[in-house]
Structure formats: structure tokens, C-alpha cells
Amino acid sequence: MVRARLRGRLSQEYSFEFGGIGAVATVLGLAGLSLAVVIYRRLGLQADRSAPLVALSGLVNSAAVDRVVAAGFRGLALPLAKTIGWFDRYVVDGLINLIGWLGLNASKRLQRIQTGNSLDYIMAVVIGTLLVIVWGVVS
């Protein structure tokens, strides 16, 4: 793996890594370019008459690739998107709505014990403190 750091204007640093996958991709890209140059030089401007290229151009002109992509989209991508949409709509949103509903119901029940009288709140603090002390002594 090769690491490189470059400095640009205004002393900004840029770094990149060139590992195994990058090397393979670079070699394949250069091999494709080399093949194109060899075919062009050998056949001149009549590169479309080469047997492999004629077969490839026939495939491109027949729109078979488009049909395969469209079938893959209709057969795989759309059902997957529908499944993910259903899961999001009913499971994820359902859990979020359940949490909101639980919060609203808990607040309605807790609202009943709020009297607004400060003496009630002081009494609750004193009783709670005594319960904690008793619990600490017993356990």
C-alpha cells in the first residue's frame, strides 16, 4: 500500500492510499486502453469491422443490455424497495408511534398527581428520603 500526501495552496493537505484494489483497477484500465490502441492502429479507421467489436456492437444495438437492466430493475430493485418501504412504514414508524403514545399516556397519568400545592411536593420529598434511608438500613 502506497500512501502519499500532497500539499495544495493555502497549506491544505491531501492524502490518498493506493492499495491492492486500486492497483488491479489501474492495471485493468491500462490494459483496456492498450488493447484499444492496438486495435485502432492495426485496423485503422475500420475498427468496427473487427470480429469482437462487431459482436459487441451487435449486442449494444440490439438493446439486450437495456432489457437485462430493465428486467433486473423490475425483478429485483422494485420488490426490494417495496419491502423496505413496508418495513419502514409499518415497523419503524409503528415503533416510533408506540413510543409517542406511551409518553402521552404516561404524562396524562402523572398529571393526576400534580396538585400545584408546594406542601404536597415537600411532603413527597420527605417521604421519599425516609424510604431511601429505611431501604439503606434494611439492605
Plain-language structure description:
With 139 residues, the protein is mainly alpha-helical. It is built from four helices and two strands, in the order ββαααα. It folds into two domains: 1-62, no CATH class; 64-116. The chain has helices spanning 20-43, 51-61, 64-111, 118-138, and strands at 2-7, 13-18. A two-stranded antiparallel sheet has the order 1-2. β1 (2-7) and β2 form a beta hairpin. The chain starts with a strand and ends with a helix. The model has no long low-confidence stretch (mean pLDDT 83).
Instruction: Name the helicity range.
Output: over 70%
Tally of individual helices: 4
Using the alpha-carbon principal axes, give the shape.
elongated
Largest sheet: 2 strands, antiparallel
Given as residue ranges, the uncertain stretches (5+ residues, pLDDT < 50) are none
Biggest sheet strand order reads 1-2
Termini Cα gap: 61 Å
Structural class: mainly alpha
Helix-strand pattern? EEHHHH
- Please tell me the total number of domains: 2
How large is the share of residues in beta strands? Answer: 5-15%
**What's the rounded overall pLDDT mean?**
83
